[in-house]
Amino acid sequence: TPEVLPKSEVITYKSFDGTLISAVVTMPANLKRDGSNPAIVMPHGGPTGQALDGYSRFAAAFASRGYVVIQPNFRGSTGYGKAFQAANFKDLGGGDLKDTVAAKQFLVASGYVDAKRVGIFGGSYGGFMTLMAIGRVPDEFAAAVQWFGIINWRTMYRDQDEVLKAYQRTLLGTPDTDPKVYDAASPLTYINAAKAPLLTIQGENDIRVPRGQAQEVNDILKA
C-alpha cells in the first residue's frame, strides 16, 4: 500500500555554474542525520527524459533497503523549456554529468549521506551517464550499475536503427561532421580511468541499444 512506501519529494539544487536543477529524492524511513547513510544517484534515459514524482519501483526498492535515492533532471531533460532541453547538445556527458555529480554533492551537503558510499545507476542514457561518471570523475562514485548504456557513439551510430540515428544527429551531429564532439562525448575516451566496481546489464536482442555496446565495456575493462 502507498502508506508503507518510502516518501519522495521534488527538490531543487544549484549546479556547478549556478543553474537550478530539479530532482526527485526518495528517503528511507527513520534516517539518522549523521553523514553515515549510503545513497544512489539515478540519472534517467533520453537524454530528453524526465524524472517525475511518481512511483519508481527502483527508488522504492533501494530506499526500502536504506539508500537515499536522487533522480536528477540534468540539463537536456524535458519539462523545463527549450533552452534547458538544448543545453547539452554536442556536450553529452559534459554539463549534464556535472549536474549529476552535483546531485550527489547536494545529498552529502544535506548531512544525511556519506560521500564515500554513493553509487550511480541508470539505463540507456542513464547507463551512458554512469559510464561517463566512472571514467571522467572516477573518485565520485563508490560503485556503478549500467543498464544497456552507450560507451561509443560511433559504433552506436553505425549499429542502430534509422529513427534513432536521426535522433542522435540532433544531439551530436554525425561521426564524419563532428569527430571531436564524438570523441569528447564517448565514455570510451575516459573508461580506462575507471576504478569503481561496475555491473553491466544488457539484453541480447536489444534493438535500441545494440548488445555490442555492453560487449565493448566488458572487453575494455577486462583488458
SSE map:
Elements: E1 7-14, E2 20-27, E3 37-41, H1 57-63, E4 68-73, H2 82-85, H3 95-109, E5 113-123, H4 125-136, E6 143-147, H5 153-159, H6 162-172, H7 179-185, E7 198-201, H8 212-222
Parallel strand pairs: 3-4, 3-5, 5-6, 6-7
Antiparallel strand pairs: 1-2, 2-4
Major sheet description: 7 strands, mixed
Q: Tell me the total number of β-strands.
A: 7
Could you give the distance between the termini? 47 Å
Oligomer: single chain
Helix/strand/pairing class, anyone?
alpha/beta
Count of individual helical segments: 8
Helical percentage: 25-40%
* Helix/strand order, N-terminal first: EEEHEHHEHEHHHEH
Low-confidence stretches: none
Mean pLDDT: 94
Radius of gyration: 17 Å
β content, as a range? Answer: 15-25%
**Shape, per Cα inertia axes:** globular
- With strands numbered from the N-terminus, the spatial order across the biggest sheet is 1-2-4-3-5-6-7
If you had to describe this structure to a student in words, what would you say it looks like?
By secondary structure, this protein is α/β, with parallel strands linked by helices. About 35% of the residues lie in helices and about 20% in strands. The chain has 8 helices and 7 strands, in the order βββαβααβαβαααβα. Strands 1-2-4-3-5-6-7 form a 7-stranded mixed β-sheet, sandwiched between helices. Strand 1 (about 5-15) and strand 2 (about 20-25) form a beta hairpin. The chain is globular, with a radius of gyration of 17 Å. The termini are far apart.
